[in-house]
Design brief:
Length: about 100
Amino acid sequence: MTVYRFEAEDGRILRLDTETATLLLSTRWSAGRDQTRWIEVYKTKSGRYVQINLTLWQGERDSVHLIEEAEALHRLALSEHRQRTDEGDALLAQAEPELTEEA
């Protein structure tokens, strides 16, 4: 379990508990390789979407911020299938008709 505290744009301090939030997306593995920088997208119990930018690099810090549902869906739509969780796939499937169009 990891708890992140971060500041919203309006100055409020928000808390994300990764144990109780729903993981939708993790780009830790890309093209079959473990990454040293990646993102995770969560949906909280209150319905907010939170993105965490994670890093393994010394001297860099993880960053956490709220994102809009549209940005979360955009990230889900452009991610590799294995990067999405079942919950992420379900959310994407619900939005698919409005989100994408035939090429």
